[in-house]
Amino acid sequence: MITNFFIPELNNHDVQELWFQQDGATCHTARATIDLLKDTFGDRLISRFGPVNWPPRSCDLTPLDYFLWGYVKSLVYADKPQTLDHLEDNIRCVIADIRP
């Protein structure tokens, strides 16, 4: 997956400023995988085995926190829901409309 898709896709983009963050799942931290990621990202690798350690249970490094939750909140509250039912409906609609 990494060598057949991810790395070739990265080569289509300017990744000089890009950071890579991975979780600590065993399948993601095999020696060959870490070596490949270090070669690709250098000191811009956030990983249990990379140059920048990813602290366990660190909510401030969750990718969704950087954009998604603030975006969802802005849409959910855009029409200032006045009831719990209205709020719940907004949440359902906004989440259902999220596309990759």
From TrEMBL:
Family annotation (Gene3D superfamilies): Ribonuclease H-like superfamily/Ribonuclease H
Any one GO MF annotation of this record: nucleic acid binding
Domain of life according to the entry: Eukaryota
PANTHER family xrefs: HTH PSQ-TYPE DOMAIN-CONTAINING PROTEIN, TRANSPOSABLE ELEMENT TC3 TRANSPOSASE-LIKE PROTEIN
Protein name stated in the entry: Transposase
